[in-house]
Amino acid sequence: MVLNNQFCFTVIDNFLSDYECDYLIELAKNDLVRSKGGAIRSETKVVDARTSYQHWLKKDSNKIVYELGHRVAREVGIPFTHAEGFQVLRYELGQEYKPHTDAMVVDSEARKKSCAGWGQRLKTALLYLGDVEEGGETIFPNMGVTVPAKKGRMLVFKNIDEDVPDIPMYESLHGSLPVKAGVKWSCNIWFRQRDISLR
Q: Which of 55, 73, 162, 194 to pair with 118, CA 20 to 30 A apart?
């Protein structure tokens, strides 16, 4: 689905197998820590706007993760060398991530320095690792779009217009609505403008 000429928004059901979903959860579940927010490492901290728990998986941690990452990259249309690690997330009752953008406003020397390396987060791939009894949808408030969490589903969207890379796209503002019943498991893979493996 294309919402306008620039903002590419794709939902693919059954992209992950049940086994892959369960496997990612199994890898992460014993090492979760409180999620943090912030545009760059020096700004990252625990914030009230993001109340989930997370664990980072190295993208080459094993064959299953590596091959899944390459499959995601082919669908996203950006080389896997541009991908960050897998950020596995667990949202329990009432937990959420208020609307935010995955790209940043480049308005400081620290942010300029950060973008001089890997560049901005050009696209986001969001993998849903389980069904949620109620709540936990991904919302795009500026577009009036809500995507329910569904096991095996992948959501891909663009974060910046490469002609205007220092400002996140208006349409890319998104959040995770509070879980009302059950647990939400998901996994983010962010794709940068440039090759991460070179740094």
A: 55
